[in-house]
Specification:
Blueprint lengths: L7 H6 E6 L3 E6 L13 H7 L3 E2 L6 H8 L4
Length: 71
C-alpha cells in the first residue's frame, strides 16, 4: 500500500507541534493575511501576526490526518 499524501492547502493553514507534556497541538494561521492589510486597524494587524491554538473541535482529527497522515 502506498503512503498517504499530505493535503497541501490544509498544510499551509495549519501547523502541528508535538511536545511530551501536551501531546499534539495544532496551530492555525490567521485568516485574511494575503494583501490590503494597510486598511486594517493596528489591533487587527497585530493580531494577524500570531498563530492561534486550535482547541479539540470536530475537525481536529480530520486536520491532523490531512496535514500529517503518517503520525
Amino acid at each position: 500500500m502506498s503512503k498517504l499524501k499530505t493535503h497541501k492547502a490544509t498544510a499551509k493553514r495549519f501547523r502541528i507541534k508535538k511536545s511530551k507534556k501536551r501531546g499534539i497541538t495544532i496551530l492555525k494561521r490567521t485568516d485574511g493575511q494575503d494583501h490590503f492589510n494597510a486598511r486594517e486597524s493596528g489591533k487587527t494587524r497585530r493580531n494577524k501576526r500570531s498563530d492561534k491554538t486550535l482547541t479539540k473541535t470536530k475537525t481536529y482529527k480530520t486536520i491532523l490526518r490531512a496535514v500529517a497522515p503518517n503520525l
